[in-house]
Amino acid sequence: GRFIGQTHIGAIFPLHSSTGDALTVKVPVRGASGRAEVALATLNSLQATPMPLPLTSRAVAGLADAMSGQLYGCGGMFENRDCSSTLRDLFLPFGVWLPRNSAQQAKLGGKLVSLEGLDEEAKMNAIRAQGVPFASFLSLPGHIGLYLGTDGRGEPLLLHNIWGVRTALPGGGEGRAILGRLVISTLRLGEDRADVVRGAFLGRIRGLTILGAGFPGTIE
After folding, report:
1. N or C of the chain: less Cβ packing under 10 Å?
2. pLDDT at 4
3. Which one-letter DSSP state was computed for residue 166?
4. Quick one: DSSP state of residue 43?
5. pLDDT number for residue 159
């Protein structure tokens, strides 16, 4: 009956007990003396679930949908997520631990397929042919996202938490068209704008990381 605190998808708490579809978990709180104490919080099946969740595309999609639209926060600023912490928190409930930054996630998250040196058509074909929807990452310098498969036109789709898209300023130099949230986009992000260079985002994609080996479940 009292407010304890606010948490985020991906948070893990020790289980105290369970009754029916309710879970009682141990939560750290600040006590009257200023020291950490343990409180109990009872959550329903829509708020929490024992981990790990079964690793299926439907389960990943459901969790990603609950996170969609959340604001971007570089390095966890204001308790918001950047691109790599989004993937880390998304897969943690499935018992999958990912490194903290995008470069490490691309290298250590699974089998890395290099897309360097490929032209646009070859790169898109490689992603379509080898990417596993909801179980593959697409990475570029300083950024990473989850490959979702293709849309009705065959365009690869990416779930990613992104600050902005590079733009060309009228007087020269580079600017940003700000998104600042978790979005689903094609790999031609922002190309409907006249100030976004065609192929700029797609051209920076360097690798496809296919998850799988060692995971506690299967993607279906």
Report:
1. N
2. 81
3. E
4. E
5. 97
Tokens in use for 27?
Answer: 């939560």
3-state secondary structure 64-132: HHHHCCCEECHHHHHHCECHHHHHHHHHHHHCCCCCCCHHHHHHHCCEEEECCCCCHHHHHHHHHHHCC
Report the C-alpha gap between 162 and 140 in whole angstroms.
12
In the three-class reduction of DSSP (H, G, I as helix; E, B as strand; rest coil), residue 57 is classed as helix
pTM score of the predicted model = 0.86
CA separation for the pair 113, 118 (Å, rounded): 12
**Closest by Cα among 182, 192, 117 to 143:** 182
Task: Copy the structure tokens of residue 149.
Answer: 């498969």
**Average pLDDT per run of 10 along the chain, which is 220 residues long?**
80 93 94 94 90 90 90 82 94 90 93 95 96 95 96 96 92 90 95 91 96 54
CB 133 within 8 Å of CB 127 = no
DSSP character string of 135-163: SEEEEETTEEEEEEEE-TTS-EEEEEEEE
